[in-house]
Amino acid sequence: MALRSVAGRVGALARFAASSTSYKLLPAALIRGQSVLPQSNFHTSPFRFNNNIIQIQDNEDFDKKVLKNTVPVVLDFHATWCGPCKMLGPRLEKIVSDNDGKVILAKVDIDEHSEIAMEYGVQAVPTVISMKGGKVQDTFVGLKDDAALQSFVDKLIA
């Protein structure tokens, strides 16, 4: 009797182990790269890339896209480790996007481009500088509310 209950437990354990560690086969459509979801569930409008927001890559890129630009530019000096920068960045991006080509946002990572940051006297982040015709118009350091950001950009555009 004891042997039968042990054998029953071992059999149950084996069935559990087999069921919990077995791999499920993928549908052939997934293997071929096809979707198994109906097409009507997908958003089909094209992705809209915002040309008004740029990441500065190097000094030459900065000269071309900021200093020689005929459109007013908002420079966002930020760092990846900076909490306030992460809060300010999306808000600036939205305001620039809403102005539809009247202003450009150039994002400068101070850890990657310390020479540009030093050239503009950046001592803390976030630092935001507005430029028109390659000349500094206005500057602020730290976070601002949405109304102050909008006013900052509006003053540059005017």
Automatic annotation (TrEMBL):
Family note: Belongs to the thioredoxin family.
Keywords: Disulfide bond, Electron transport, Redox-active center, Transport
Superkingdom of origin: Eukaryota
Organism: Capitella teleta (Polychaete worm)
One Pfam family recorded for the sequence: Thioredoxin
Biological process terms in GO annotation: cell redox homeostasis
MF GO annotations: protein-disulfide reductase activity
Entry keyword annotation includes Transport: yes
This protein's GO CC annotations: mitochondrion
Thioredoxin domain location: 33-158
NCBIfam families: thioredoxin
Keyword presence, Disulfide bond: yes
Protein name: Thioredoxin domain-containing protein
